[in-house]
Amino acid sequence: MMDNKIRQQGLTLLELAVVLLIMIALGGLALPYVAGTGQMAACQATDATMLAVKEAIVGGGGPGYYDDLLGQMPRNQPASTDYNLRYLFEKPAGWGVYKPSTAIGWRGPYLQGGESAPGGLDASFIDVFDASGNPAGKVHAAITSTAGFQVPDAWHRPIVLQIPYYDPDGTGTEYSAGYYPDQARLVSAGPNGIITTPIDDGDADPRGDDRVLLLKIPDPGGNTPCDKM
Known about the structure:
- This protein has one domain (14-223).
- The protein has a four-stranded antiparallel β-sheet with strand order 2-4-7-8. It has a two-stranded antiparallel sheet with strand order 1-3.
- The radius of gyration is 25 Å and the shape is globular.
- With 229 residues, the chain is an alpha+beta fold.
- It has helices spanning 13-58, 65-70, 126-129; strands at 115-116, 139-142, 149-150, 160-163, 165-166, 178-179, 185-188, 211-214.
- 24% of the residues lie in helices and 10% in strands.
């Protein structure tokens, strides 16, 4: 009986080099797709988070603290007032727990969790954390608990509340220049980490790659579609 010997032949160095070059080329083609799908997922996750924050503020899918309970939007007031954004996380001093029989009281926490404020934020966040230079009534603030936890977007930067302060007819008179809470919106700085959306424009335009969600009125449009990020 003859033994059948199976000869195993390995790849030559040249063949191995060709295979590696093909794999590298295919990997290079895949990278833009993988990066693109990652940005799209981050964009969609940010939009979902902003929608949850919107419902916490104005109601909709559930009770909203400011528009629904207090009857007006938060403003740039001292922390002792009922309009401070931290009351989305924690009960104001002196407030009772909500009673369905009277429809009075705090129904929170409206938001939970969050992250500590990251370092290295772009200069466009300065107005968010330092309101000292803002005109009276202007609101450009992070949504922050007493412990310093904030609501982050998918890029781990704070989602910001903007309530415009501007002069729509350019006259500078007290009858036109002022605070426009009906145009309040949530803003994420998007993948580039720079807040482009101007607080002095009612339509939140231009937005760049920001994610913007208006709280009270229909959005005129302007967000880049997530699949184009």
